[in-house]
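Hi team,

As requested, here is the filled-out complex form for the 4AD run. I kept the field names the same as last time so the parser does not choke. Let me know if anything looks off before we queue the next batch.

— J.
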Amino acid sequence: MKRTRILDLPTCKEGSEVQISGWVDGVRALGKIAFLSIRDGTGTVQAVAKPTTSGWDLVEELSLETAISLRGILKKDERALGGVEIKATQLSIIAPSAPDYPIQPKEHSTGFLMSQRHLWIRRPLQASLLRIRSTVILAAQNHLDSLGYVRVDAPILTPTSCEGTTTLFKLDYFEKTAYLTQSGQLYNEATAHALDRVYCFGPTFRAEKSKTRKHLTEFWMLEPEAVGLGLEENISLQESLFCALIDGVLDAHEEELERRFKRDLRALKICQRPFPRMTFAEASSRLSSLGFPLDEEGDFGAQHEEELAKDVGRPFFVHHFPAAAKAFYMAPDPLDPSLSLSLDLIAPDGGGEITGGGVRIQDPNLLARRMDEEGLNRDDFSWYTDLRKYGGVQTGGFGMGIERMVRWLTGTHHVRETIPFPRTIDRLSP
Ligand code: 4AD
Ligand code: MG
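And here is what came back:
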């Protein structure tokens, strides 16, 4: 008999015979009746076994995560999870599970659960997060594809920094030094000159010393880059992508978001274009009037983002950051070169910075000066300067941290739950 996935059980006829297989999620044996909760990675269902069930003797061998196969008669039951229940006619064990399964139905600390991440991901909420992550990635790729963007991946082993030298992971590369990529952007600029509209999507590394709910040392970044993408076009692209991701997740997971994540769906549905926007200077004076002025260096930190976001109440852009605060490649505003053509998209409810991007410097002399100012060795970037030498035109783009996006969409406390196996300053395992 063919296996039915638990997800598909509600489409089966009442009274029909079904065959499922999965892992025991809970077992309650009360003398001559046993209630089994079975999970198969697509859902969870309850089955009822009785002494007439073939394999009834095996019930006492079942423990959390025993892999079983079960055949039975489908019963619709409004009160049951998923609206169905199975009256078991036959039960067999596929693979036993040791009785000391570490994740028991009780409170565990997140630290402990993180150390058991390889097992924790079997829990329905964790599995849901991974499924939603997959939806977000697919929706992003579909959206960019619909706009003519070509996926061209950037290397992970790189000879230089892209986002400053303080968060580089360094490694031996034969007789040389290599760094794990901080961003594919510089390569995107090269590929945009070959393909017009491009994006890369891949693992990105930052030796972040920050222990916050938003920082990973390894995260996945989606980075579109296109010829002629000025600040306005960049904003439009980000708005349309952001909305496409919300739509994609609502289409596929609305019920899950509400029931399992208790996400306030209004917070997602109010994200209509255009998003509010403000310059860095406007943000700064708004923060002063809210009682959270920037310090003398003008550092715009997580708390500032949060206070502003509370005030705005929905995702918004901050643009025109001071040029000095941004990376060497960021183009100055021709009207006021102390400001840069840069922008961040910030989300409320603790979401913080979800994207960062801007317009790139086109002038080779200015680029060289900015590298000198940042203490970068021009020779290391010779290929990048070449782009300016041979018909270099203006490109722009941004990077979106996929985990930050998933975290915000689902209202998850910590970004580490939005990636299968998180890497943070204090975690490299499992
Ligand atoms: O603002 P960032 O550093 O921008 C860049 O790297 C640009 N070169 C991107 C580009 O223009 N192509 O990073 C972009 C985004 C952030 O807004 C954030 O969502 C995410 O990447 N990010 C992190 N996510 C998790 N953990 C970290 N340590 C992150 N650092 C950045
Ligand atoms: Mg940034």
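Two things worth flagging: Residues 344, 353, 356 surround magnesium ion (ligand 2) (CB under 6 Å). The chain has a mean pLDDT of 96.

Thanks,
J.
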